[in-house]
Structures are given as structure tokens and as C-alpha cells.
Amino acid sequence: MAVNTVANVIMRLGFSSSIFFSEELNQFLIILVTFVGISEAARMGRHIRMSAFTDMLGPRASKVMMIFITLGTASLLFLLAWYSVDYVSSLITSNRLTPALRIPYYLTVLIVPFGLCVTGIQFVLAALTNILKPGTHLSYQVEDTFDDADEHHL
């Protein structure tokens, strides 16, 4: 994405002509990075979370809350994946093409249902890890740790 953007700027400034597909390619790459990235963030326990409330709870209540949150998040992601499959299906039947590259538009968003579904699976695995293992886990491989020493730095 960076190489494409820099090349387009050089072309525009140096040769007064843009790369005709540059903006479109960057849009596709942003979609790809986003929906691959959310799954990786969930796998590594690096997703955005509001931990102030759960940090005040005891270990057992925090664990129960984490199970509830991860299952709720997984459910929402699977629902969004379902809707995105419907959207991709409608794009397939519309035969819509991208303006610059003239490729079927649905190819550019196929990663969306896949990314949402894989991320949902990551949250289900986090819930199962919290159910089956001691401690509170942000993902199936990352345990939540709270250090009282961090409180003094605030």
C-alpha cells in the first residue's frame, strides 16, 4: 500500500499523471488489512476492550464477564458475517465491476465474511479457554494479567 501510494505521488508530481488504479488498489488493500488484522488482533488478545470495570471485579466475576463478552462478540461477528455473505451474493448477481481495474466488485470484498467468521471463531476459542482453563484469558493463547504496580503509574 505504501509503495503504491508513493509511486502514485511520484507519478503525479514528476510526470503530471497518476496511476489510474492506485486509489482503487489502496481501497482493496485497506479492506484486506482490516479483515485479516481483526482476526490476528483477536488471536493475540490485542482487541480494544474497556477493562476498567472488569479490573474492579474479583477473579471469578471477571472470568464470567469475559466468557459473556467473548460469546457476545462472537455472536455479533457471526451475524455480521451472515449479512456480509448476503451482500457479497448480491454483488455477484449484480455483475458490478470496479471502475478502474474492471474486475468483479465482489472479489474485492470476499475477505469480509471470511475475516468476520475467523474472528468470531477466535472469540469462541477465547470463551472455551476461559471455561476450561484457570485464570482469565483474552484469547485462547493470551492470559489477562493485571499488575497492581501499573496502578501507581496512572
Automatic annotation (TrEMBL):
Subcellular location field: Cell inner membrane
Pfam family, one: DctQ
Membrane-crossing residue ranges in chain numbering: 25-43, 64-85, 105-128
Topological category with respect to the lipid bilayer: Multi-pass membrane protein
Keywords linked to the UniProt accession: Cell inner membrane, Cell membrane, Membrane, Transmembrane, Transmembrane helix, Transport
Residue ranges occupied by any Tripartite ATP-independent periplasmic transporters DctQ component domain in the UniProt entry: 1-129
Keyword Transmembrane helix: yes
Function: Part of the tripartite ATP-independent periplasmic (TRAP) transport system.
Complex and partners: The complex comprises the extracytoplasmic solute receptor protein and the two transmembrane proteins.
Family (UniProt): Belongs to the TRAP transporter small permease family.
Protein name: TRAP transporter small permease protein
